[in-house]
Amino acid sequence: MSLIKRIGRSAAVQQALGILAGGYLRLVRRTNRFTVEPADPDPWLDGLSPFIAGMWHGQHTMISFMKRPHDRIATIISRSADGNVNTIALTRMGVRVIRASGARGRVVRDARAKGGAEGLRAMLRALKDGETVAFSADVPKISRRADAGILTLARFSGRPIVPVAVVTSRHWRFNSWDRACLGLPFGRGAMVFGTPVRVPRDVTPEAFEALRQQLEAEMNRVHDRAYTLVGRPDRVGSPGPVPGPDRVGSPA
User: Fold this and answer.
1) What CA–CA distance (Å, rounded) separates 114 from 103?
2) What are the sequence ranges of the domains in the chain?
3) Quick check: 148 and 212 in contact, CB under 8 A?
4) Could you give the CA distance from residue 74 to residue 111 in angstroms, rounded to a whole number?
5) Cα(127)–Cα(103) distance, rounded to whole angstroms?
6) What is the pLDDT, as a whole number, of residue 37?
7) Cross-strand partners of 36
């Protein structure tokens, strides 16, 4: 292991990076003028709570912006070393972090899948205890294709999935499979909540696939709508590698 990697995996360094990241996210939240759609969503969201906030993976750094003062939100992050910094940052943003692998589609076929069943149980407990769970819906390593895992969580918990998109007009686009974006300060922001998707406990395989497609379409709709509200195109295009980090937009 290189010296840089050893330093990066130091608990003290990760703690410092996590604190800095949390402070930066608060700066982005405070300095962007956010539009929320639908307007005045609090009564509606309160009636749905606790719910599963479905997000595309590349927006995981800003999903904490949806948290209202009275909300209790949990999310799941892998136990990898890279997840430690995200855990510290999100904790400082008021989000409870569950350290486990996500409940992906393979959990349906194999409950012994590495970490998947454990993560599913932890999220079910969180929802039962009244916490909203923010969960990325993508198929692992395939951007913006809804996976069975989030629908499985909805099926076993009885709670609705609410598609959520949080974007800013100024952001960095990273060269990663999920086309992750990091918001920049001093711009415009949009937070869009979509039509809830509910999954019956006794759903048939055909109906399950139809709901998966419905969720995927609604998540893409709210994502596109959020970019429309900030007046910037989403320059993602089709899934796959991109040439390199791409700064989108200019100071608003």
Assistant:
1) 10
2) 3-180+190-248
3) yes
4) 22
5) 14
6) 98
7) 191
Q: How many other C-beta atoms are found inside a 10 Å radius of the C-beta of residue 124?
A: 17
Where would I find the H helices in 11-60?
11-31, 42-48
Q: 3-state DSSP call for residue 58?
A: helix
- The Cβ-side half-sphere exposure at 75, using a 13 Å CA radius, reads 29
Q: Fill in the amino acid letter for 207.
A: A
Radius of gyration of the chain (CA): 18
Collapsed DSSP state (helix, strand, coil) of residue 18: helix
Element (DSSP H or E) covering residue 85: helix 81-92
What ranges in 129-204 are assigned the alpha helix state H?
A: 148-157
Which CATH architecture fits 3-180+190-248? Answer: 3-Layer(aba) Sandwich (3.40)
Query: How many CB atoms within 10 Å of residue 17?
Result: 17
pLDDT digits (tens, 9 = 90+) for 48-65: 999 999 999 888 779 899
The residues facing 179 across adjacent strands are: none
Q: What is the pLDDT of residues 32-49, one digit of tens each?
A: 999 999 999 999 999 999
Can you tell me the distance from the alpha carbon of 92 to that of 71, in angstroms, rounded to the nearest whole number?
14
Query: CA-to-CA distance for 45 and 141, rounded, in angstroms?
Result: 30
Q: What is the pTM of this model?
A: 0.85
